[in-house]
Amino acid sequence: MMSRLAALRPTTIDELCEAIADAAGRGAKLAITGGGSKSAIGSPSGATRLDMSGFAGVIDYDPAELVLTAAAGTPLATVQALVAGEGQMLAFDPFDHGVVFGGAEGRATIGGVVAAGVAGPLRVSQGGVRDHLLGFKAVSGRAEFFVAGAKVTKNVTGYDLPKLMAGSWGRLAALTEVTLKVLPRAKLRITKLVLGLSADFAVKAMARAMGSQAEVSAAAHLPDYHGRSATALRVQGFAASVEARCRMLDAQLAELGALDLLEDRACESFWHAIATLEPLPSHPPLWRIILPPRRAPELMRMIDGAWLLDWAGGLAWVATDIRPDRIRTAAAALGGNATLVRASAAMRAVTPALHPLPAGVAALEERVRRAFDPSGIFETGRF
Q: DSSP secondary-structure letter at 296?
């Protein structure tokens, strides 16, 4: 029998099941944690920390089959370095939140990335976590070990649980292992920059580029890039193809003026800055707003603060001191939703991190959570 102290950092399935069963018996709450890189999202919680870093290591990687299986506590950086060594990448373009919270990168785990549904700028073309999570192993709030998806001997027939688990924020089960699809890494990466566009023209230009045969893989807009706005269009692939598609973009957007060029390392550095929000100030509350791209310029006119657009305008990052109710009212009016990512502990204590759901959807979500966690072991009050 493990001691309660040891149960806070289990290293085997049996220990994890025991820790959860023990918490259920005591009526305790468990906060599932990987590296803690996103622990400042959501209301501060006094729940016992269930450290999943004991489940670490790459379990199986078959570059030829484009499939990787890793324990959930494996550092994201370790996984990214491994697949990069084989000329591959995680398709959903995840990133480490360290810089977002004013710290260093390196704490994020692959399980935490999956649980939070973290995807970077390439999501607009490659898809999100839920599109590339093939399978997983986990322990539910019932203290029951279960498996789902690909590469398992016994599947949960009839339910696409990987899609449900991605973005669940540790409220359904504690992930112990994930199986992910990877993709070949592009041989050449080029970013075309259109300078001086307003948000309205930028969104139109991004929509035109994304809908063209140029196969743009990422599109973003910065209102201030070295003193001017910059609309960025990323093209990647084999050299000959990239060069041809860049010429296509030049011709298609010729009326907007000459397009500047970022190649290789400069291109990677630019998109890393977009993902980790380096252009935005670090002190005001930070909001992640999902909305129809065409409505993004309207949102920017309704909100006073620093901002940038990713996902061709479908994702707005806004750093502002505006009241949370005004942010969420504006987002909802435009068909979107707003997540509070960074704020003071006092603000997070009274402002839900996730956008409130309609009553019917909230009731359905509650039933799903109770199916996995009937005693509410993972309901820590964070969300």
A: H
Record the tokens describing residue 199, joined without a space. 């948000």
Q: Per-residue pLDDT for 63 more than 60?
A: yes
Q: Domain check: are 180 and 202 in the same one?
A: no
Domain of residue 135: give its range: 53-184
Which residue from 366, 363, 365, 318 is spatially nearest to 342, judged by alpha carbons? 318
What local confidence, expressed as pLDDT, does residue 264 receive?
87
Q: How far apart are CA 339 and CA 288, in angstroms?
A: 5
User: Is the model more confident about 5 or about 139?
Assistant: 139
Q: Is residue 143 part of a domain?
A: yes
Last residue of a domain, one of 245, 276, 307: 276
Cα–Cα distance, 309 to 120 (Å, whole number): 12
CB atoms within 10 A of CB 128: 21
* CATH (domain of 142): 3.30.465.10
Summarize the confidence of residues 71-90 as an average pLDDT: 98
| Amino acid at position 58, single letter | V
Same domain, 69 and 176: yes
In what side-by-side order are the strands of the sheet with 306-310?
A: 260-263, 188-195, 228-237, 218-225, 306-310, 315-319, 286-290, 337-342
Q: List pLDDT tens digits, range 233-259.
A: 999 999 999 999 999 999 999 898 878
Express each pLDDT in 144-177 by its tens digit. 999 998 664 344 455 689 999 999 999 999 999 9
User: Does 163 fall in a domain?
Assistant: yes
Domain count, the chain: 2
Global pTM?
A: 0.93
Judge whether residue 121 has pLDDT over 80: yes
Picking from 169, 184, 199, the residue at the C-terminal end of a domain is 184
Give helix 199-210 / helix 239-252 axis angle, nearest 10°: 130
Confidence of residue 6 (pLDDT cuts 50, 70, 90): very low
Rounded Cα distance between 306 and 300, Å, is 9
- Judge if 83 and 202 occupy the same domain: no
Token pair 């800055």 is found at: 273
Sign of CA dihedral 367, 369, 374, 376: negative
